[in-house]
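User: Show me a protein chain along with its predicted structure.
Assistant: Here is one chain, sequence first, then C-alpha cells.
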Amino acid sequence: MSIKPGQLITLEFEDREFEVIVIDPNGLGSNQPSVGFGFNMIERISGLPNSTSSAWVAKGVRANEQKWLELPSGQTFRVSEIPGLDGNIYSVLEVADWVSVIADYAKTKGKRKPSEAVRNKLIDFLAWFAVKGFYAAAYASLKGNYTEADNRAVSAWMKVRLEGISRRNNYTKFLQQHGCEECYHYANWTNRVYMGLFGKTSQQMRDEWEVVEGVESIGRNHIPEVVGLEAVAYCENQVIELFHADLEQAHDDAINFAKKKFKLGFQ
C-alpha cells in the first residue's frame, strides 16, 4: 500500500481516538512514515488550548516562510504545512515534538505558566502516553517482537489502571470524609479490601503480580493483575455506594459483592 503525505487516518489507541496526519512517508526510514497531530487534535487529547499553541506559532514565523512553534522557554519546533488528501491544509507537528511541547509547557513557571487545571491535564496526558511505547520496547527486547496479542493485553491493563486511579481518588476522598486522617488509616482499609478479595495484603498481591510467571505455587491459583485491579476498583466503588452508617459493614458487603462478580474463591 502506497503511503502519501497528507494521508489522514483515524487511529484508536488506548480507548482514545486520534486523527493522525502523515507528514513524510519515509520520515523514519524507507517506507517508515513520520506522523503528527494538528492543533485541534492535541487540544482534544491533552488539554493544551489551540489558541495557546497557535499564538506560539505566530511568534515563531521566520523570514524563510517556514513556520515554527516557539515556546515560552525559547524551544522551537518545526510546523509542517501539509495539503491533506481531503483538500484541506493542515498545520502539523510530529507526534514526538508534541510530547516535548507538552512536557516543556507543563514545567513553565512565572506569568506564562499554564493554569493548574491545564497543567494537570498535560501531566496526566504524558503519564498515560508514555507507558505503551515503553512496554512495546520492553516486549521487543524480551521476546523479539511485539504482537497484536501483546498490544491488546497491555491496553486492557492500562485501561484498568487508569480507571482505577480515578475511582481510587473518589474512594480516598470518601474515607477522608468519614474520619480517615493518617496514612495508616488508608492502608488499613486498603488491606481490608485486598485480604477480603484475595487473602493477601496489597503489598503481597503486588509482589505476586511481579513474579507470577514461572512460580508454580502461585501460578496454579493466580489472579491476573488486570482482573485483580478491576475487582479492587469495583469493590472500593461499592463501599461508597453501599455505605449508610457503618464503614466496616460497607466494606464487608462490598467485598462479598466483588467476590461473587469476579468469581474470587481463594479459600
